[in-house]
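Task: encode each sequence below as structure tokens.

Item 1
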Amino acid sequence: MRRVVITGIGVIAPGGGGTTGFWSLLTSGRSATRAVTSFDARPLRSRVAAEIDFDAHEYGLPAGPATELARVAQFALAGARTALADSGAAPTLDPVRTGVALGSALGCASELSLEYAVASDVGARWLVDHTRAVPHLYDYVVPGSLAAEVARDAGAQGPVAFLGGGCTAGLDALGHGADLIREGSADVVLAGATEAPISPVTMACCDTVRITSRRNAEPGSAARPFDRTRDGFVLGEGAAVLVLEERERARRRGARTYAEVSGYASRAGATHMTGLSPDGAALAAAIGAALDEARLDPSAVEWVSAHGSGTRQSDLHETAAIKRALGRHAHHVPVSAITSMTGYPLGAVGAFQAAAGALTIRYGIVPPTAHLRVPDPECDLDYVPGGARDQHTSSVLALGSGFGGFQSALVLTRPELD
């Protein structure tokens, strides 16, 4: 079977500084969460988020209303361009053997809500005036336009797919991209996810189901996965795109490799739209299947990159799934929630986790779970409180869990090329 390695990483995340800034944020244990600045959030229940101070010009992208390029698309393009530059693969790409697998939970939902306000006189008209909307409004309606933008920018004429499985979209896109290479449909795939959900409508939706933090007076420490004082997640935004490459191709061109994509699986709880089974059975099944594909024993997992949404239900579910899948080893492996620092960027979270996993393998540092000061007695694993750890790591398990019962797991291992 053809094997898949990661040869490039492009991260656009809160805290700034691209991939280097992302890794610095994680290893320092700092938080990028703050009070919302992009709009007046005073009427909302939760008024904290992890925003990006994004400069499109820095990535060679046109900016301003006239460009009509959605913020979520700008993140994706910036991430893809950064990843390609990091990989050094661009000069050797064969367009018809290059693909794209991009995920997002909400797509251009934020832009749609803003354009509706413009075209309807802030809701005064039921029949909106289309002449007042941007000409590319249709692209905002079709989520697949995000993957198409990345493909067009990179000149990728191979398989192009958009994955919209909610908060597992990032892991699912990486799994799909790896499968495209394994089956021989592509040699290189730009895979990852993008999200720009920090808007009045999205935050109001989160308020409705009370899943976001109300710690408005302490925005810098509001995200507290696995901590007994947690009260919900802090919404984040951004994109992470990885260059996946067939291993022998990467070897021939002398590419630097971060990690190998060794296993992926997805399962469904199929019980409730928002509820999670306390035994974590579906996520545990996904973990088991991903480890089987990687031909890895559960005891060989050296770091678990937790989904870490920071709700009590999710924390208990994820803890139970790790115990169920890893057995006794669950109490001996470090488990970190990077969302405590980056916020929770919905569909992009899995792509962030995969980037962090590849960097952990490369540099031998396990990120912490920030703000974990009051342990929840029902969450009794090693969640790496206090700070990052130096640890030679050869295998990483990244977990994803989303509304609708979607459960995904991705396994990264140390590559054999270096």
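Item 2
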Amino acid sequence: MPLPELPFTSRFCTARDGLRLHFRDYGSPEDLGLAVVCLPGLSRTSADFGPLASALSNGAAGGARRRVLALDYRGRGLSDYDPDWRNYSLPVENDDILTVLDAAGVEHAVVIGTSRGGLHAMLLSQTRPSLLAGVVLNDIGPALEPDGLARIRSYVGKFAPPASEAEAIDLLKQGMNRQFTSLGEADWRAYAGITFADEEGRFGLRYDPNLGKATEGANIEPPAEAAWAQFDRLGDAPLLTIRGGNSDLFSAKTQAEMARRHPGAEIYVVEGQGHPPLLIDADSIQWIADFVAEVESRTAA
């Protein structure tokens, strides 16, 4: 059963090229806890992190209230769509992330990256390593499985958007029920709302359909050698890797290699879920909250 969500403030800033970028701001800059930055997947939005961001901002991690930012990349959620789909790329999006962080005044944080968001988290080890107090990589690593990449390319920007909650649930079940075997009806309903409902409750796509064009090339992933180098640059930063037990993109072999290269990394497997785990259940949220609290205790020591 998904956990409840708390209010947040929608904030906007301007990218280098003039596009308006949106992020959800939970908590307050006055909160004393270590900040958290949440980065969503390829076609996902800040809404994915509603229950998690609410819990973390409200004291789930060691009792401290903290500020939590959840971002919409360009072309997703409430951020402007880019007239040039070629800008839906890791370098451009990463620069946008830095712009949001500067606008929000966040200099040091735990970064939680789901899928593409995890690629951005690893890239930040190169573009702004001082940010990374700790890193959570949700069903992502430097090596990605071909079956998962093919599945993602097969649907992003390639289906008619659902016009109702029932259509949205059916669409998700058709594509995801083999991976997400543990979800109940309340979970599917929450998943559909997070994925397709806008701020007024209307159902449709929450991303620019032209994003599908960006998935047709190498744009969807960095070269493996570069990705491993970015991962290795995480150095001594505390690390939690999360894998969906049924994931077709992030293998147990890759997760084990990441742990070997990063001694002390925590490993969490969400059984009955695929790519990526939704992070809306109490167990997953508590695991991440405990990790954030541990990072904070190390930072304070």
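Check on item 2: Strands lie at 9-14, 20-26, 33-39, 66-72, 109-114, 132-138, 239-244, 266-270. The first helix runs from residue 50 to 57.
End of task.
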